[in-house]
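Hi L.,

As promised, Glutamate synthase domain-containing protein:
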Amino acid sequence: MKKFRFRSGIGLVIALFVLNTGLVAAAVIGSSHLLIALAIVLSCAQFYLHDRFGRSYRTLTNYPFGQLLKDRLSFLPESVGRLFVKTRTNTELTEKEGLLLARRSKSTDTTLVEDNLLPENDPGFEYVQTHPPFFLPGPLDLRVNIGTAQCLQPYSLSVFNFGALDRGKVADQSVHALSQAANMCSCAVNSGEKGLTPELVRGGGDIVWHMSYSDLELRNPDRSFNETMMQLIAAKPYVKMIELGLYSTQVAGQEKTPNEWAVFALVSKLRLWSGGKPVGIHLLNPAKELVSHLVRSMGPANVCLDFISIEESWAANRLMHKDSEQRFLEAVFTAKTMLRNYGLPAKVIGTGVILTEYDILRLCALGADACFSAAGIPMENGLFQQKPIGRSGSPGIWLANFQRNTVGATRTLMQRCGYEHLSEADPADFFRRISAFEVVSLKDIFCQTGRERSLAPLVHLN
């Protein structure tokens, strides 16, 4: 007799369903409490197996096998590689994210996003608890003033801006379109490591000048800072804020801690050279310990930063690696908690792949005062690659429409949650599915003092 074997987990689930149906029928006919209890146990096992095998199937379905094959064939010419691997224009956005980006760039009506656009039953799914609509009108302008008492020219920053231009392949015309969009919708654009390029300046947007502490172009041959050049750049009228990049490098599991005294001395000079513009520190994928050390050092140095900018670091396919997002959210939460504990007025700015009103409000609930959407990855791969028929306007107009519509949706979501100000966003209103049977709030995850909770390294895409 041929041995029977299950070809997939779905077959096992179906077999359990048939067995469970028979047990229920037998329990009803025979009035057996034991069979009823056994049927309940099998129902729980069936639900667990269905969830597990379903998540495994979705993970394999969305695994980037094409990208892996493309990496293995990288030694071949590009024309030959196309014969084996189909070129995919959008590698960083899910189907829902790409559709939302395209519709809002055309000012087409979209549904309000109250979750993180993942399947509802998958671990990693998040949503916000909304309440019946309040009659109070929402805030007219979602902006925050950046600048402490040591700042002479505070800047009114929008809650949603464009940044991280160096995190993807952004062409010069795309940079110009981003700057134009920032000018149209009165938000800011971060220069990134590319600096103040002509395309960025000609767009007319307010610029956050990102400068690296180790940038040799800003130093003299003897490795001292070229103060004349830095003063000339910092005093430009289109430069509204200055951030000093300190990158957290990991070598053999250890992080390189910057010399805080030299950093704070340069911050004081930049504030003086710029005429009192907001000056802050930029950290890429920092650990909680580095953020805590930076905040504690502000008091002894007698320098109060105007803001701390924290940028998320993601892999080539961010959708398959959510552990970096967890590290990013922990750093934002730690920075805000430490600033509150020390009574420091510095603001926290988060930079990542932020596309929806849920992303903005969740980040504000964890401590961010404003955010920068990583334009290099989602905009270039999602927006400029899509050219529907009948679509009019320039990329700058599309991006401006996307920013305005997202800010408007954020205002609507705040009304549904009962928030009158962004500072009222509460992590207790945001929930995350940890497993098939456990849903906890972000307050329990980030505010607990016991064991750490984190996302699974792989999440299942929609």
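The first helix runs from residue 9 to 30.

Thanks again for sending the construct details.

K.
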